[in-house]
Amino acid sequence: MIIIGIAGGTGSGKTTVVREIVASLPEGEVAVLPLDSYYKDSSHVPVEERQSINFDHPNAFDWDLLSEHISMLRRGEAIEQPVYSFLTCTRQPETIHIEPRKVVIIEGILALSDKQLCDLMDLRIFVDADPDDRLIRVIQRDVIERGRTAEAVMERYEKVLKPMHLEFIEPAKRIADLIVPQGGHNRKAIEILKMYIEKIVGR
């Protein structure tokens, strides 16, 4: 089993890189654990206060549970991955059953921000992209998928995303084994990455 962490800023192309890795391996060989699934449950927080939660800060995540789940998968045990609702900022009663696989990918903006979790990884990847490109993708995604105005997205970018990126996400480059510039558009880097993974899992 190989445990891979894939981090990078919002809109950097992490999902594209993950999709390419999954597509390159036989069906059923990869388990993907989105970091977003491991946000702390906020059901105890008054509803009116939940909107002020900083989802781009490491304190928003349940690192202990995620590390425990990675250790369980490594031991050959199945896990019940949490399901998180951004509408209510709460963990849902249902879970997703995940069986151990040859490749386990942890993907999220802060996937390389917890030392205990990083120590469990065999390969740490940082997906990099120009800040302007990331902002454009964030605006497109939030306006289309989340119904926000471009002005609201840019205000959130300046007040939350940008400072959190500089403080917590960007430093992860220093512990990454591989940095993928130009995000999901870097075909050569993704091909090299896929070959490495295939070699490790014995294909």
TrEMBL record:
Report the HAMAP family cross-referenced here: Uridine_kinase (MF_00551)
Q: Which PANTHER family match?
A: URIDINE KINASE
Q: Which family does it belong to?
A: Belongs to the uridine kinase family.
Q: Which reaction does it catalyse?
A: uridine + ATP = UMP + ADP + H(+); cytidine + ATP = CMP + ADP + H(+)
The protein's location, in the record's own words, is:
Cytoplasm
Q: Does the keyword ATP-binding apply?
A: yes
Q: Where is the Phosphoribulokinase/uridine kinase domain?
A: 3-186
EC id? 2.7.1.48
A Pfam family of the record is: PRK
Positions binding ATP in this chain are 8-15
Which GO molecular-function terms appear in the entry?
A: uridine kinase activity
Q: What is this protein called?
A: Uridine kinase
Q: Which InterPro entries match?
A: P-loop_NTPase, PRK/URK, Uridine_kinase, Uridine_kinase-like
Q: Which UniProt keywords apply?
A: ATP-binding, Cytoplasm, Kinase, Nucleotide-binding, Transferase
Entry-linked Gene3D superfamilies = P-loop containing nucleotide triphosphate hydrolases
Which pathway does it serve?
Answer: Pyrimidine metabolism; CTP biosynthesis via salvage pathway; CTP from cytidine: step 1/3; Pyrimidine metabolism; UMP biosynthesis via salvage pathway; UMP from uridine: step 1/1
The record lists the organism as Phocaeicola faecium
